[in-house]
Design goal:
single chain; alpha/beta; Rossmann fold; seven-stranded parallel sheet; 10 helices; 7 strands; 40% helix; 16% strand; globular; disordered C terminus
Length: 237
């Protein structure tokens, strides 16, 4: 039964049609973002990696640099994350997907329709906590950012190669827990380079603030996805 389902051309075509429609919407979003001079960052990770707290820290740092920031948060249910982020960002918007495990370009377009993009420098998109589906859906972003917590295990990039191989930047979170978790950071870097050689890696701790300035330096200085150089920065730079 399962074999027949996988081989059914109609099932395959449906998936391709969904992605094709999304890519069309994403292209329109990308044009909209670029015409308004907004840099868009798509953050993807598993649940519990610390995306929301990292977003809060990044907002605070960008605010201190007089950058205007907007945030869109995707969750299957609740508006808890947007409420947390709204304390440091007045342009925080929640998308409740009603169980859908990823954001799509049409969802993002609908969420930002009343947002004054021309007033923003950066738009952070906190995707639904999931390491599989969000990596397939273009949101018109400039940078796709994969987050990896030191609590998740060193082999996470090997288990989810689609995300980590397509990421323009990889952010390691919860560095304050390296010692308690006995995390082998050298092995994490080896695994990342095996999947996406030379990708930029930034080690951070939202709790202590370690790496937040370096992360924001890279975010503001990185080229857009349609320019040469993104994802080609040496991991030791």
């Amino acid at each position: 039964m399962l074999k027949n389902l996988v081989q059914d051309s109609n099932v395959v075509d449906l998936g391709l049609n969904i992605l094709a429609a999304n890519d069309k919407d994403a292209a329109q979003l990308r044009d909209l973002f670029h015409s308004n001079g907004v840099k868009v960052l798509n953050l993807i990770s598993a649940p519990g990696t610390g995306k929301t707290e990292l977003v809060v820290r990044v907002c605070q740092e960008l605010n201190s640099r007089e950058c205007s920031v907007g945030v869109v948060v995707g969750d299957c249910a609740t508006e808890n994350d947007a409420k947390r982020i709204s304390r440091v960002c007045e342009n925080a918007i929640q998308i409740v997907t009603q169980g859908v495990c990823h954001l799509e370009a049409s969802m993002l377009a609908n969420a930002i329709k009343d947002l004054d993009l021309s007033s923003l420098d950066v738009l952070l998109v906190e995707n639904v906590g999931n390491l599989v589906c969000p990596s397939d859906f273009d949101l018109g972003e400039d940078l796709k950012i994969a987050l990896l917590s030191v609590t998740e295990g060193e082999d996470k990039p090997l288990k989810y190669p689609d995300l980590f191989s397509s990421a323009d930047l990889i952010v390691v979170t919860k560095m304050d827990l390296v010692e308690p978790c006995e995390t082998d950071m050298a092995q994490i870097h080896r695994n990342i380079n095996q999947i996406n050689f030379g990708v930029k890696v930034v080690e951070t701790s939202a709790r202590t603030g370690v790496g937040i300035e370096a992360l924001c330096d890279f975010l503001l200085g990185a080229n857009c996805r349609n320019k040469v150089g993104v994802g080609q920065v040496n991991s030791n730079s």
